[in-house]
Amino acid sequence: MQDRLRQRLILWKMGRAGGEWANNHKLDCHRARISRKLSFSSLMRLLPASVALFGMLLSSSGQNAPRLIWQPVQEYFIHQEPGKEAMPISGTRRLNSFTAYTHLGTDFGFMGPAEHDIEWIKDEVFPHLGQEPDAWAGMWHSLAGLAREPQKTLDFTAAWPALIQSKYQTRISSIRLDASGLGKMRLEIKSDNQEMLWSVALTVPSTPGSTLTFPVSPITCKNAKLINWIAEPGSEITVDGLFLGVEAPDVPFDEYVTAASYAKLARCFDAESGFVKDRAHLEDGAFESLASTGMFALATVAVSQPPLSIVSPEKAQKTLQQIFKAVKLLDRPLCVLPHFVSRTGMGYAIHPGTEFSTVDTAIFYHSVLLGAEILADEGLKSDVVSAVDQIDFDKLRLPDGVISHGIKDDGRTLLEHGWKDWGGETALVMMLQNIVNENAPRHPMKRPGQAWQGSGFIPELQSLFYPDFDSDEPDALDGVKWSMARHRMLDAQRDYVTRTWPGSMAAKLGLYGLSAGEGPTGNSYYVGGVDLPDQAVLHPHYILMSAALTEPSETYTLLRRLEKAKLFPPWGMVETVPVNCNGYLPMNGSLNAGFEALGAYHLFAKRRGVPNAIYSGSRHSSELRRASQLFFPVNNQGQ
Hints:
The protein has 17 helices and 21 strands.
């Protein structure tokens, strides 16, 4: 029953126009009691929603009406592994395995003298204070970075990462609380030094599923750090969710998709170190990804090019150079880069227990080489090529001749598995080797044209960097018609959900993506695929990763539907969705964010028919033309 109600709610929301937010979310101020003097902003909260909207339009300097999208700070649903009994957190009445981060990629926690009377045993939070006449309880949520990182704040006038230019910036102009019950609450926004930037007192409506919406002046919250809700003594309240009202930039939707996807990836970038965190909610220096760092460098350069210019070319070049300089300082046995690094007392080093990875090395160097080519940075390009030339592929080969997946963290022992399965990972490693040595041994791949388990990302990875694989010319290595194989995978992905789960919400939305990423509870890596039965966990990054294969208007229509279903909010596409769409995993993981950002760029270039900077760079790079000869010898010159 609960699933059916969720599905009806999502379908209802899909049927409403995204811009008609005043009709979607009426102010419930006739139920709220404001406990402060009647300032102009207080009067705004007491007026009908249409008048509040008019006031915001007056302050928008004559621009078109903003398109408002609700970004969850947190929807208080449970991520519980199937078959495991729900057990409260020790010493509390709370239950939730999803305790590490908010939907913003930040942390949160409980507060107040009666915080242990906050119950969290299903998809709502219950402050039970009926027997607490003098004690309050609530929850705090960091708006940027971790709460213990005061230098990271959220500017409500420019809410996306600072690299993004003003034309594409979002604004936060309202707050929404989904709550019901008996009692009173307070909402508040505080700065990095605990200064009160905004607050409102309210009486909670008794009607279940009630929504309370409040305007907020963006200019007063330029250094917002925390957003809190507080249940007053004696209250018995159910809290379903807390949201930011985000005004999208006044740009076409295809540009917005590219900017939003890039913003998701940029949120993981540590501007001090030059590395990209594996997940946005981690502390800087704890666990950084080299593959993500490379893709961020390339995405930053790509979106700096006209007609987009989401990032200025000057900032893009500075970021690219900073990233390469940071990576040059790493220990690299056989000149292979680490998969993950973390900060030590002596700088950055391989994260203990991980490996030096040949595929991450391939992704990183392809990315920065393309970035240098696009920006015509000859000095950086020379340094990148020199670093690639030093990779000792001869010592990386296993007894059967294939290239190893990498080296253990001891820096000496080769990993026993090698790159032989068909797909983009193997292709990128082999093409990197071809840059170093065109006469290196060539080994056919296993099961040519068939991705392992039918996992979606495998046939698409190489096409984030090379245009050559858009062809149906049989490749010189295995005779695979790559475009045909990629389209076959796309058809299978779209068909799988409608065939296997015909009545599911995913089928109704047109959602697909049997790929790889975090599992539904966020506790383990999960690899799905169309060759496996009864797959019910989707990774929607595949929609953007494969988007260049699609009719662009169809994909943008799907993305609009996902936006209305809260699966593509302003902070970026969610990580994982079950086919019944009863919840989702909002983790901001940088690897899939990298796939999404580059995929969104390729989709934009195809839709507009403009020069694709990545593909142009690939065609004009002598090194990448040499690499592509492995598969397409006749395409070894740029066109």
